Amino acid sequence: MTMPSSYGSAGASARARYRTLQTADRTRRLLVLLAVAIIAGGLVAWLSTVWLGLIVTVLSCLIILVRQRRTHTPAAAWRKGAAGERATARRLRTLELAGYTVLHDLAIPHSNANIDHLVIGPTGVFVIDSKKWHRRTTVRAAAGTLWIGRTPIDKIVRPVLFEARRTGEVLSQATGRRIEVTAVIAVHGSRLPRFRVITARGATLLRAARLVGWITRHPHRYDTVEVSTLTSTATTHLQPYTQAPDLTDPQESFG
């Protein structure tokens, strides 16, 4: 069986979106600095001396630069998301030696959504969404639901459930048989305190470090020929996501 190990690039669309937003942010920041320099310098120079105006201008620009670096921006969120996807991809490489196919950053037909990682192997088909959260992100139960930080778990798992369902529909229609796809969220950063594996609405959330072992411990469902057929079907109907969607609040921004 020929494995398309180079099919798709982990975090490609997130990196592209980051570069676009970063360029826009850089332009905006330069304009802000220019406006501050003109206003502060001109005002102080008019009230006192040119030298004092220059000093105040430099100090004002430095303060603005520090505040901008500390501000959470959409560009930074996409950069963090891309880093999480690449980290997950590195962990998934070991699966290819065990008869699995691992595909990255795939487009879902008729949707702006994308699949971070698609794993096809003897133990089934898995759609994996990568999350890179702050190490102090908390997991707690309150008000009848589970919360990841300040976000209810339903909001976290909803996108990956949609991606898994659509992937299953595409593969099932193309193969003429029902293909079940498991939705998984691989978390980097947060230690997920008091929980080893979290299941919510049919999706599984776990530490990225446990992902490979969790996948391989599932019962075998497909033989080598079936894995090859599913791989061929996936690469035919799920193309690499070559254009980032127009989103300003990416899922990667949480945490």
Can you describe what's shown?
This protein is α+β, with helices and mostly antiparallel strands. The chain is built from six helices and nine strands; from the N terminus they run αααββββββαβββαα. It has a six-stranded mixed beta sheet, with helices on both faces. A three-stranded antiparallel beta sheet has the order 4-5-6. A hairpin with a 6-residue loop joins strand 1 and strand 2 (about 115-120). It starts with 11 loop residues before the first helix and ends in an 18-residue tail after the last helix. Residues about 1-5 and about 245-255 have low confidence and may be disordered.
Largest sheet: 6 strands, mixed
- Treating each run of at least 4 consecutive H or I residues as one helix, how many helices? 6
What is the CA-atom radius of gyration, in angstroms? Answer: 23 Å
State the end-to-end CA separation.
40 Å
Mean pLDDT: 75
The low-confidence parts are 1-6, 243-255
| Percentage of residues in strands | 15-25%
Envelope shape: globular
Order of helices and strands: HHHEEEEEEHEEEHH
The order of strands across the largest sheet is 1-2-3-7-9-8
Structural class: alpha+beta
User: How many E strands?
Assistant: 9
Report the helical percentage: 40-55%
